[in-house]
Amino acid sequence: MEDGSSSHRPFSVVLHQPDVEETAPLEMPPDDGWSVDDLEAEYLKAVEAAEQAELLSEIAIDAVSDEVSLEPVAEEQPVEPEVPVEAPSEPALDVDTAQVLEALLFVGGAALSPRRLADVVNTSVDEVEARIDELNRRYRGERRPYFIELEDGHYRLAIESEFEAVRSRVHGQGPRDVRLAPDALEVLALVAYQQPLSKEELVASGKPEADSIVRQLIRRDLVTISRGEDGKSILYSTSPRFLELFGLRSLNDLPRAEDLRFK
């Protein structure tokens, strides 16, 4: 039955019957000889090969890691603390007892008793005597022009007899050969009569340039210098050579003090 409104629609529905050729089943491509089982077997082989490759890669990485860990690691050497460099100190003087005794007799010029020397060096009298004997042996072995003699219980440096002529040419043989200025003679007399004379007493005497004059007398071996009992004060005395030059056996042979007039 035909609908009357169909004339107003711009289209119509047509029922089409397909041809026999269009409904025919699709043809499969020609068989290349691969079955489903074959494809599955090949797939399993590929998966297995991939797993083996991954396993070999892991083994190689482990081997490299082991090699690295087996290499010896350089141990850090302990750093030693720096030791500050000290400046070289001056070597201590190796001075023995004999050298000290020699210096005391040489520099002081005065005759010193064995007890006095022992007290200064802080040793025994026997040690002093042994050391002085040692010095005299050394002097003889080295042909020194001097030696240490013991006179009236006191040690002093003395000149060997063969060198007396040399000393006489320098210092003179007697009072006439010893040329001293009047001021020097006055200071020498002051020391001779008031010995041991302290430095303060010499200055207090009022003699002009007394300190300079007494140093000249010391250089001429007419006056000796020593230390007081306190170890600080300076004392002046006449030397053994003073007695020799003036022909005196001892200080008791000096003229009386009242016979001399000091300025």
UniProtKB/TrEMBL annotation:
Transmembrane segments: none annotated. Signal peptide: none annotated. Residues 1-33 are annotated as: Disordered. GO terms for biological process: cell division; chromosome separation. Keywords: Cell cycle, Cell division, Chromosome partition, Cytoplasm. SUPFAM superfamilies: Winged helix' DNA-binding domain. PANTHER family: SEGREGATION AND CONDENSATION PROTEIN B (PTHR34298). This is Segregation and condensation protein B. It comes from Caulifigura coniformis.
